[in-house]
Amino acid sequence: MKIDNKYLPILISVALAIGIVLGGVLNTPNQNHFFTKNSSKNKLNELIDFIDNEYVDDVNTDSIVNLTVDNILAKLDPHSVYVPPSEQTEVVESMRGDFVGIGVNFYMYKDSVAIIKPVENGPSAKAGIKAGDRILYADKTKLFGRKLPNDSLFSKLKGTVGSEIELTIYRKSERKKIKLTVKRDVIPLKSVDVSMLLKNNTGYIKINRFAETTYGEFKKGLATLKKQGAQSLIIDLRDNGGGYMEEAIAIADELLKDSQLIVFTKNKKGNVDKTFATERGSFESGNVFVLINENSASASEILAGAIQDNDRGTIVGRRSFGKGLVQREMDFDDGSAVRLTIARYYTPTGRSIQKPYSKGNEAYFKESNTRFENGELFEKDSIKVSDSLKFKTKKGKIVYGGGGIVPDVFVPLEVEHGNESTAYLMQSGIVGHFVFEELDKNRNVFKGLSFQQFMTKMNGTDLYFNSFQKYIFQNGLDLKFGKSKSLVKRYLAAEFARQVYGGKYYYEIVLKEDAMIKAVFKN
């Protein structure tokens, strides 16, 4: 089956949209105070009892309740959602910033659990597991030759701190089976992908979400960059769907002067809660640039809005998603949860950046895709703003509400000779799978090479470019790379570097030709 190229960006953005749905949460204690007695609620409970006790056929009333909850929340807003028990554990771990496990990055390759890379200094790495290993058995449970869903695999590999699991490994490079005992431990889920120094004493920090550990990770990275001489700072929030707004506020506090307004919220009773910067900021002077795109949402928009409205820095990129609603998570006894919108947030100038959702959830989320179709991702003049939602910063800069943060410096979607689908594809998971499979053919191909020698080798060959083109055709995508060769080769080299040398080297490669980074250094 071949997929029409014009729909490829939409397909690739689905996972990002899911992250945005669950982004933007107040990290406050659970408050289940909204279940009070009244006749309508009693009627619903009685109906479930009638079905459970009297209906002619056996019915799973739990599924009816879940469906009812989903339907009720769908009538409210796109971000009030029900999270079933099967998903809630993973969501909680992601937002907490760690989990207990063996510490490997893996995926199902053909019929086996293939290790892309063990987590550095994690339990698996300490036990001797290597990239390319296949896990055949977890204790006595067979993992190969079966179509196990990811949640089943995770449950086999996770456990309690200090508990042991015996893994039977097949090491392809040595053509032998090995039994290893791995002691489970806490595995961090980093929300800051990298912090590194670029040219002109400019620090760069990439934040992928706002979890409980994000501010701590950011502050540690910023401190290191300052010691290295960073005088300007780039904060990359592209494709960051949000998370805990307190973490975004804490980061804003590091950049803003004492008493500057960061954000304020307003609930249904009209109560306003304002949050101001304190005197603790460690980077209150020096240039700040915030990178955003159409998938930057919620907490990302709080941070970007605070910087823009206080005239503290420059927002670079494309209009953000447009989520200005605040949720509170409330847990149920069965392990599920509901994330209920309890307030709207406003940037310091008083603007709401929440885009309209009166036409329903489907139209709401499709709005992001229409930006691709109407040309907004390529031309700043295609961004639709309303003069009635115009605001001014203290220095007189015009900013707009009503649907995302409009950047100060517009940078179109990275396109080479009109092939925008390639730009989306090269940042998707399929590239990582291809690189793993290429490395799997010969793990020694880059052995002993310095990073500079690796780059010379990658720049001097079209071997992987040609192989990737064939791989894409074989996977049903009718996408030709001839006019985007340099872009494809750059991202392939970056992914090889990530899997061979580590994540920092991925960014060293892609950022050199990154359109938004180039825009920063022009300003």
From TrEMBL:
InterPro entries: ClpP/crotonase-like_dom_sf (IPR029045), PDZ (IPR001478), PDZ_sf (IPR036034), Peptidase_S41A (IPR004447), Tail-specific_protease (IPR005151)
A GO BP annotation: proteolysis
SMART domains documented for this protein: PDZ, TSPc
Cellular compartments per GO CC: outer membrane-bounded periplasmic space
Transmembrane segments: 7-26
Entry keyword Transferase: no
Similarity section: Belongs to the peptidase S41A family.
Protein name as it appears in the record: S41 family peptidase
